[in-house]
Amino acid sequence: NWGNIKGDITFKNVSFAYKEGEKVLDSFNLNVKAGETIALVGETGSGKSTIVNLACRFYEPTEGEILIDGVNYQERSLLWLHSNLGYVLQTPHLFSGTIRENILYGRLDATDEEVIRAAKLVNAHDFIIKMKKGYDTEVGEEGGRLSTGEKQLISFARAILANPRIFILDEATSSVDTETEQLIQNAIRKVLKGRTSFIIAHRLSTIRMADRILVINKGKVGFVNLI
Ligand code: ATP
Ligand code: MG
What we know:
The protein is of the alpha/beta class and 227 residues long. The protein has 8 helices and 10 strands. 31% of the residues lie in helices and 27% in strands.
């Protein structure tokens, strides 16, 4: 039950420039249907992160509009958007506080059991309880001694607990050990299930989870079909 959102997202003639006169996106069109997983691939600097930044409304289109369930997202509140849309970014952001608080973020009503269930589902539970203070470990401003892979798993646990209708993943390019890599792949698979998802994928294993692959090439767009 997703409450008041279906989860259909449309970019309609979206243009965007960080600096005036330097368009990164030029009349970009895309419809992602409710429940669909779309993978964005393409060269560095092609505009992939810009597309998801716009979807998250960290930035807004310079021209054109982004519609959610057919309604321009600017007609809704940012709080509404962010309670229906979850994201795991390339450099996962953890804030100072404990691991538990970081997973709870935005879901302060959740019980300890729910936190643990979310962590188990994304395979974060085992490494968390190996630490002396477990879920009460302070991550510190920069995430303490947690690796990038571990921080991503905590972000996945947060996303699972928040249960957003729309999920966005900007896959980390940094190398992690094969075991963590496998845990992250499994976490991705679980989080994508049943949601509308945008994934910026660098790994073939992630790309293969998509229903559609969108190749971004210097502002131009093409689709390829999964074999
Ligand atoms: P990568 O694969 O390296 O992550 P990307 O496809 O995600 O690349 P974007 O980050 O969307 O590419 O960048 C698209 C263009 O916009 C690039 O030319 C980049 O330099 C520029 N750009 C990105 N972020 C900013 C910003 N905050 N301010 C100014 N220009 C930016
Ligand atoms: Mg990027």
